[in-house]
Amino acid sequence: MSHEIIEEEKFQYLETKGGKENLLLLHGLFGALSNFQGIIDYFSDKYNVIVPLLPILELPIRKVSVSALVDHVHDFIEYKGYDKVHLLGNSLGGHIALLYVLAHPENVGSVILTGSSGLFESAFGSSFPKRGNYEFIKNKVEATFHNPEVASKELVDEVFDIVNDRNKAIRIVATAKSAVRHNLGDKLHQIKNPTLLIWGKQDVVTPAFVGEKFNELIENSKLFFVEECGHAPMMEKPEEFNGILETYLSELNSSNGVEK
Known about the structure:
Elements: E1 6-8, E2 11-15, E3 22-26, H1 37-43, E4 48-52, H2 66-80, E5 85-90, H3 92-103, E6 108-114, H4 134-143, H5 153-163, H6 166-181, E7 195-200, H7 208-217, E8 221-226, H8 233-236, H9 238-256
Parallel strand pairs: 3-4, 3-5, 5-6, 6-7, 7-8
Antiparallel strand pairs: 1-2, 2-4
Helix pairs in contact: 1-9, 2-3, 4-5
C-alpha cells in the first residue's frame, strides 16, 4: 500500500486517515518513510498513521538542533489540530518524542520508543563521516541490524549520498552532537504518560541496558525485548514489533474505556 507525501505550508507528511486515533511516527537521523513501511502497512486501516518528514537536512545551519526538531513536531501537531497522538519514535525520533512529551504531556496518549537516544547512543562515533568510502558506510549501516541483509542497497546508497553531501553531513553531525547534549537522565521521572519500550536485544547503537534504564526511569513503562534484532525492530522484525504494539494499544484503550 502506498500513500502520497502531502506538502502544506512548511510541512511534508504522510497520513493514512484509517482510524479515529492518531499514531504519529518520528524517524531517526538517517530515517525515511521506508523505515516505517511495516508499521504503515499494518496499521494504516486501524489508525490514522501520520509520518511527518523531519527537516534534519533542510534547517538553516544556525538552527540545527534537537530542540528545533521538537518545535517542528509541535508546530505540525498544532497545524493539524490533533487532539491526542500516540507518539512513536525510533532512535533520534524517540529522543524527539521524549522532549515533546516532557513539554506537552497533555497532547500525548502514549509514547512508544524503539532504540531511542536520550540516555546513551553509540552511532558513527569519532570516525564519522568518512566521505567517499562506500564500504565503510555499508558496514556501518549493516551494523545497525542484527541481520546485515536488512540493510538494502537502497538504504546504504541513501546514507552514502547524505554523508557525501557536505551541507547534509554538517547538519547530521550537528544534530547528533545536539542529541548528546540533551541527555534526559534527570528528566525521565517527570514522564507519567503510558510508555511502551520495544528494544532489539542485539542493538549495538542503543544497547539492551539502555532500554532497561528507560524502563527504570519512566514510571508508567513496559519493556519488551525482540530477540535476534538490532537498532530498528520495526524494520528487522516487523511482525513481532507490530504484534507487541497492537496488543499494547488495545490494552491501553480497554483500560481507558476507549472504543476503536
